[in-house]
């Protein structure tokens, strides 16, 4: 199908009046417009901003579609990649990680590193699940704002130091 809107054809030729940054929530469709989906979109944006704040020279690649077996972000720092998965809970209870097995299986097969960033809750059961599937190649962090930046930095730097370019 041909796009018949003139703006999409002519704006790239003449430039846009302002820079538009595509945020993760603008191109990753969520299933519903539920409260949790809106929280997840905002949380993805906040985590994206935190990663750029902590590693200003890094590159962040966002997955364009929502799937259970691929992580939300790929963070590349100093030529080394870490997969980042965000999880949003609406209650502060236990996070068991029931949605993680397809992702963990794929990352184990590919030999990739993973940081799961959780907005709230106790991640102990999920931490055991990640340790079983990925060993020392996986971390889980509870991050709810800039006051938890140190925890996020420690988790990612720990994985970066054990990562080699040729694994």
Q: What share of residues are in beta strands?
A: 15-25%
Q: What's the mean pLDDT score? A: 81
End-to-end gap: 42 Å
Instruction: Compute the number of strand runs.
Output: 5
Question: Helix fraction?
Answer: 40-55%
Biggest β-sheet strands, sense, barrel: 5 strands, mixed
SSE series: HHHEEEHEHEH
The computed structural class is alpha/beta
Number of helices: 6
Radius of gyration: 17 Å
Please tell me about this protein's structure.
The chain has 167 residues and is an alpha/beta fold. 41% of the residues lie in helices and 16% in strands. The chain has a 5-stranded mixed β-sheet with strand order 1-2-3-4-5, sandwiched between helices. It has 6 helices and 5 strands. The protein has helices at residues 6-14, 24-27, 35-54, 101-110, 124-134, 149-162; strands spanning 59-62, 73-77, 80-87, 114-118, 138-142. The termini are far apart.
Summarize the entry for a quick read.
This protein has 167 residues and is of the alpha/beta class. It has helices at residues 6-14, 24-27, 35-54, 101-110, 124-134, 149-162, and strands at residues 59-62, 73-77, 80-87, 114-118, 138-142. 41% of the residues lie in helices and 16% in strands.
